[in-house]
Design a protein that fits this description.
Blueprint: E1 25-29, H1 34-45, E2 49-54, E3 65-69, H2 75-80, E4 86-89, H3 95-98, H4 101-121, E5 126-130, H5 142-155, E6 161-165, E7 170-171, H6 180-195, E8 206-207, H7 208-218, E9 225-229, H8 231-239
Parallel strand pairs: 1-2, 1-4, 2-3, 4-5, 5-6, 6-9, 7-8
Helix pairs in contact: 1-7, 4-5, 7-8
């Protein structure tokens, strides 16, 4: 299914409507990362109940924040025991942090898919995941191929609705994990983004806060299908009333 296949008409984060019988219950991985931490802020500002699977304590406290600290290998087992409506992955590493292609693949593909499969088995009917612009299981680029394989595997799990966010270069405070090329790209992004117009807009840099806002809005939607959202769609979702 092509990117931007269908734009949200009511995207952007809002509190879960009070008319629902119960607040949205979800399980989240990547909660301490750039997008995940911003998304957690938005979810907890509403009425969502969030189960976060983390390797280390995040330091976050909230009455609706349930943190499960465990090695990532244990996350599928934890997810399988949770009664949730939706699964969310904002998990992602870098080649520099992973140290090898195999280690990168273990995080960005194998961990995400195993987590999603367990959540689906436990009853989650919706999923939102953060991928990358250009993701393609047939790509010659290792990073993009891995992301594409992750997307394809999630499509095969049978979620009623799957939303895949494919942002360009993410701007935001990521800490020391940034590669030199990323830091240069972010510094130049205000100028480069002026050139990346029209069909090239999908490759432009985008603020992580916008991606988090879009992801939160998508969790309120239930129309069935698989939807891919690139920069233009992501901004529309975040900006919509």
């Amino acid at each position: 299914m092509s990117s931007d296949r269908r734009l949200s008409t009511c995207g952007g984060w809002r509190p879960i409507p009070s008319r629902e019988a119960a607040p949205l219950r979800l399980v989240l991985i990547g909660a301490t990362g750039l997008v995940g931490s911003l998304l957690a802020d938005r979810l907890l500002a509403g009425e969502a109940v969030v189960h976060a699977l983390v390797r280390r304590p995040s330091g976050r406290t909230h009455e609706r924040w349930h943190e499960h600290v465990a090695p990532s290998a244990d996350w599928p087992g934890l997810a399988a025991g949770l009664a949730v409506d939706a699964a969310v992955s904002a998990l992602g590493t870098t080649m520099r942090s992973a140290g090898s292609q195999a280690a990168f693949r273990a995080v960005d593909l194998e961990t995400v898919v195993a987590f999603a499969a367990a959540a689906r088995w436990a009853g989650a009917r919706r999923m939102v995941t953060v991928s990358s612009v250009g993701a393609d299981p047939g790509s010659r680029n290792f990073y993009l191929r891995t992301k594409g394989e992750m997307e394809r595997a999630l499509e095969g799990l049978g979620f009623d609705r799957l939303d895949v966010l494919r942002p360009g270069l993410l701007r935001g405070k990521r800490g020391g994990e940034r590669r030199l090329g990323e830091r240069i790209g972010i510094a130049l992004s205000p100028v480069v983004n002026l050139v990346l117009r029209g069909r090239l807009d999908r490759f432009a840099a985008i603020d992580a806060e916008i991606v988090a806002e879009a992801a939160a809005g998508l969790l309120r939607r239930s129309e069935p299908g698989t939807y891919r959202h690139e920069n233009r769609s992501i901004r529309a979702l975040a900006d919509a009333d």
